[in-house]
Structure formats: C-alpha cells, structure tokens
Amino acid sequence: xxxxxxxxxxxxxxxxxxxxxxxxxxxxxxxxxxxxxxxxxxxxxxxxxxxxxxxxxxxxxxxxxxxxxxxxxxxxxxxxxxxxxxxxxxxxxxxxxxxxxxxxxxxxxxxxxxxxxxxxxxxxxxxxxxxxxxxxxxxxxxxxxxxxxxxxxxxxxxxxxxxxxxxxxxxxxxxxxxxxxxxxxxxxxxx
Length: 191
What we know:
The chain is α+β, with helices and mostly antiparallel strands and 191 residues long. It is 14% helix and 27% strand.
C-alpha cells in the first residue's frame, strides 16, 4: 500500500495519521479541504468517543422540535467535526477502489487500531463495483465485529452504509462514504 494510507489509532485516542496529500487531521479539516476542491474517493472511519472514553452500550434519546426538515448530515457535521478520521484504503484511483482494506492491530493492516480488544486481523472492508456498495467482513476476530450493534457472522460479508456504526471489539467508529463526505462539506464553514 502506498505511503500516506496507513493509520494507527491508539486506544488513548491520540491518532497518528498520515493522509498523503491532505493536511487534514479532523473531520472538519477534511470537509473544508473537500469544499475547497480536494478530491475524495475513499470512505473514512471516525472514532466515536466521549470525554476520552468510548461510548457505553446505552441508548440515547433526542427530541428536536423544528419547523424545517432536519438533515442528518448537518447533525453529523456538528457531532463529529472535531474527531480524527482515517481513510479506508487509499484515497486514490490508482490500484482500484475494490481492494480489500484490512483492519486490525497488525502492522500489515491498512487501518491499524491499537486496542487490546482488537485482533491482529479483525475485519475487512471492500467496495463491490457490481452492486456499488461497501461491505464489511469479520475475519474471525476473537471479540467480534458489530454493525449498528448487531454481531456479524465471521467470514460472511454484510452491507455497509454511510452513517453506520462499526465496532471492532470495543473500538467504535462511524463509517462515512465519499458522496456523504461531499454533502457534509457543504455544511462546513471555514475558520
């Protein structure tokens, strides 16, 4: 994999991320770059955390009263703007979009998550050109992979969509695809 694609996410949430030709560290930075013409072809994973700790398995209810229709992308922009992200694979058309992107603790994984609950090779994400969708597969991890709280069956791929919550062991992320990132960038103000 080309330099600038690998990411290491530490369990203390300090991410050491190399993003190739972008200087963005947070989702907000990336959205500003996209708004200013940065070409995005790869989805991203955003680490979900609160006050230095991951979310517990609880349900949060929100009540919003509004006279206009609420666009969930604007809510995501506000909620995750200051969070660090990592590309899922290379943000390049070189090598193809349909390469399997490995996720785990191993140095050989494209997305490296340093968390004891994450297996060396925990899961993988791939884009399927024939369906036009992304898929996630648990690679037989010891602590499992969940998609929106539902455990995945090892070695069976599951459809993945923008805004889905993915957990690898107890490390939780939000998956956002390129079209959604472009839409989110429209809500982002520079400065």
